[in-house]
Amino acid sequence: MRTIQLLAVLFLLASCKGKWEKTQPSVGKITESVYASGIIKARRQYQVFSRVNGLIVSIPVTEGDTVRKGAPIIIIRNETAKLNTENAAIAADYNSVKANADKLNELRVNIDLARIKLNNDSLTLSRQRRLWEQRIGSQQQLEQAELAYKNSVTAYDVAIFKYNDLQKQLNFAAKQSGKNLEISHTQNDDYIVRSDIDGKVYSIAPKNGEMVTTQSPIAVIGDAGNYYLELQADEYDIARIRLGQKVYVTLDSYRGKVFEAVVEKIYPMMNEKSRSFTVDAHFTTAPPVVYPNLTLEANIEIQTKEHALTIPRNYLLGEDEVMLENKERKKVVTGVKDYQQVEIVSGLTANDVIIKPAP
């Protein structure tokens, strides 16, 4: 019985020994990169919102159309706004200085009459004073001439004041009415949703006859044929990402193919929910056909070594040890890592044989 057990143990050891996988360090190129996910976006891509709530009466464009800046995208019913504009136009016309020219002319005539009376009363007073100096007439006549002159001066001043005051009121009313008309025109134009750029209509959410609100986007517009990559990089990797670094991109739409891009912008604010940073990149070798919001996976190249001594990553024990062929554990210093290989800076040579740790 004891002999059978010994043979079983020897057989087990022999079987385990045969399962050890071996390899030797090799010299080659290794590239360290960090992973990022993201989507493709059109340049200047933005969501279109309506400034007013209302019912859609017309959609002059369809998805895929190219539009000029200021072109109508969606037209909303605006009967009330039109009536308000018409009322504002009526008020502006009624309060214009030109429409009230008769009132000003009337006061201007009153000023001329008051001036004539003032001149006459001034002459009468001067004559009455000369007569009184010659003791001709009476004191009462002189006082009456002086009172009439003062009244004429007051009447003349009042006539000028009324004219200036009316002119000021008319100018104010005309400007106010004009501004109200401008506001009405602006509000009326809010019922036409226009493109802010020369670009392409990528999507339109509502349909003709549906209601739109100011809270929900109604369309997406961006540059036609000019795209970039919006990547999300983990906060632990962002410190190693720099402008100009190469990006290797894979898309589900082009399985098995890798496209190249370059980092062009790093946003400094971290998204607290996802604990990630936004990084923009542009294609240097782009797919033949691209659409906004296509998902992608990217590897941002951090550094590359052409002649590095490397071993497979799954041969490492922990972070800094390997197992030699004689089962001895050996300390190593690692350098650049990718998803499959790791650089050995020191601790091994190309002649060493190492074995893969048992799972």
Automatic annotation (TrEMBL):
Protein name: CusB/HlyD membrane fusion family barrel-sandwich protein
Organism: Chitinophaga polysaccharea
Cross-referenced PROSITE patterns: PROKAR_LIPOPROTEIN
SUPFAM superfamilies in the record: HlyD-like secretion proteins
InterPro entries according to UniProt: Beta-barrel_RND_2, MacA_alpha-hairpin_sf
Gene3D superfamilies, A to Z: 2.40.30.170, 2.40.50.100, 6.10.140.1990
Domain spans labelled CusB-like beta-barrel: 229-284
Keyword Coiled coil: yes
Keyword Coiled coil attached: yes
Record's GO cellular component terms: cell envelope; efflux pump complex; extrinsic component of membrane; macrolide transmembrane transporter complex
GO biological process per UniProt: xenobiotic detoxification by transmembrane export across the plasma membrane
Origin superkingdom: Bacteria
